[in-house]
């Protein structure tokens, strides 16, 4: 069987036991199907080539924007105002194709656009959000620095007031989309604490260089940024962003999407393993007929189903306005960790073929290791939950 045929066979087998669609209402299902069409018809045919060639295919952006997926959870300014559960279902379908494309939608919508929508002035929202929703302008979110992404309170990038302007100096690392972005949301220390600034990337002193040598997220862009005396007017400051509450609230939007997205990568790995288990014959019968293989498949299904149910539960809470941020850490920590375990088990079912690009499993596994690191490592989310349980902070 071809890989597409294996996926189809695995999808049929999986749907006979558990399907995400049954958990969604009609509107949520419509959004899911939009994203699934993009993932299967637009992204999937080229993703292996792009991963191999370390190429971000930005010509796909208009198709994604045309489906309303950019900033879809934001209301107004050309955005759809979709529910959190709808957005989550979209993230799942995009990451089923590749984590890099869910990351693109996340950086654009959950980070850059959310920062403007939450903390920007009316003028800033009108200037940027409609064009970002159509994909005309790409945004990036410049928070992480070279000396420690897990400790943003220690950021070294500084913004100094100079008359009616601000002058920003510093560096950022692992900033998604920065080299193709038209606007960067830059977080910097000031005399009044951390503040956010909108920096057009054409501003003198701003430079972004893609990070090379990546073994994960090869079909997407992450960059080093240098801000060398970047001068912007005070009108580019996000007026309602004060302290780390601003960037953290945006990060929580992105982490929420990861809770769903990781299960998309897990689903693809499970579908491929199921298809292969039914197709490959060893010792006279399909490998799916052996007890050890069935045990692997059952364990994979168990963790996938639990992860999706957790994602839906968090989505329902988010839509109701009752979601505790600690629960986002539960979702991110559990679902990424279990998605990696599912990918590893799928690779073992595929045998030696599992390490080739003929199958998407190793690509998903590598990408998930990156997802495990960004938006809070396993260790950071464990400490978040430990603090919630004990009332004692153990970060230092």
Protein architecture, described:
With 396 residues, the chain is of the alpha+beta class. It has 3 domains: 17-133, Butyryl-Coa Dehydrogenase, subunit A, domain 1, CATH 1.10.540; 139-243, Butyryl-CoA Dehydrogenase, subunit A, domain 2, CATH 2.40.110; 246-390, Butyryl-CoA Dehydrogenase, subunit A, domain 3 (Up-down Bundle). It is built from 11 helices and 12 strands. Helix 7 packs antiparallel against helix 8. The longest helix is centred in the middle third of the chain and has 35 residues, at 245-279.
Write the layout of secondary structure elements.
Blueprint: H1 3-15, H2 26-53, H3 61-66, E1 75-76, E2 79-80, H4 84-97, H5 99-119, H6 122-133, E3 139-142, E4 158-162, E5 165-176, E6 183-190, E7 193-200, E8 206-210, E9 222-233, E10 237-242, H7 245-279, E11 281-282, E12 285-286, H8 291-320, H9 325-350, H10 361-373, H11 378-390
Parallel strand pairs: 3-6
Antiparallel strand pairs: 1-2, 4-5, 5-9, 6-7, 7-10, 8-9, 11-12
Helix pairs in contact: 1-7, 2-4, 4-5, 4-7, 4-8, 5-6, 5-7, 7-8, 7-9, 7-10, 8-9, 9-10, 9-11
């Amino acid at each position: 069987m071809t890989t597409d045929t294996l996926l189809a066979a695995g999808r049929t087998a999986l749907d006979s036991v558990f399907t995400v669609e049954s958990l969604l209402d009609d509107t949520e299902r419509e959004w899911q199907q939009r994203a699934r069409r993009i993932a299967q018809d637009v992204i999937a045919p080229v993703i292996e080539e792009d991963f191999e060639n370390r190429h971000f295919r930005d010509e796909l952006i208009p198709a994604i924007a045309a489906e309303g997926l950019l900033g879809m959870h934001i209301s107004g300014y050309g955005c759809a105002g979709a529910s959190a559960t709808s957005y989550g279902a979209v993230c799942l379908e995009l990451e089923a194709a590749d984590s890099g494309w869910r990351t693109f939608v996340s950086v654009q919508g959950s980070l850059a656009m959310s920062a403007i929508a939450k903390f920007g002035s009316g003028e800033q929202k009108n200037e940027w959000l409609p064009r970002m929703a159509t994909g005309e302008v790409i945004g990036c979110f410049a928070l992480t620095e070279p000396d420690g992404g897990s400790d943003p309170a220690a950021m070294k990038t500084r913004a100094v007031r100079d008359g009616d302007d601000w002058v920003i100096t510093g560096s950022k690392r692992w900033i998604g989309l920065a080299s193709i972005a038209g606007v960067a949301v830059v977080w910097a220390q000031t005399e009044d604490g951390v503040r956010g600034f909108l920096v057009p990337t054409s501003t003198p002193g701003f430079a972004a260089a893609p990070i090379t040598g990546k073994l994960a997220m090869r079909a997407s862009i992450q960059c080093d940024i240098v801000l060398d005396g970047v001068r912007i007017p005070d009108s580019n400051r996000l007026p309602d962003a004060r302290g780390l509450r601003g960037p953290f609230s945006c990060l929580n939007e992105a982490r929420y999407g990861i809770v769903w997205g990781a299960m998309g990568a897990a689903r693809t790995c499970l579908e491929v393993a199921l298809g292969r288990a039914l197709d490959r014959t060893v010792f006279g019968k399909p490998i799916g007929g052996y007890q050890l293989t069935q045990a692997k498949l059952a364990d994979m299904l168990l963790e996938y189903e639990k992860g999706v149910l957790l994602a839906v539960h968090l989505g329902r809470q988010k839509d109701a306005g009752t979601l505790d941020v600690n629960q986002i850490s539960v979702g991110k920590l559990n679902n990424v960790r279990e998605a990696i375990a599912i990918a590893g088990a799928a690779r073992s079912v595929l045998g030696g073929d599992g390490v080739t690009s003929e199958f998407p499993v190793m690509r998903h596994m590598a990408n998930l290791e990156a997802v495990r690191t960004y938006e809070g490592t396993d260790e950071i989310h464990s400490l978040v939950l430990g603090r919630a349980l004990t009332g004692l902070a153990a970060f230092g």
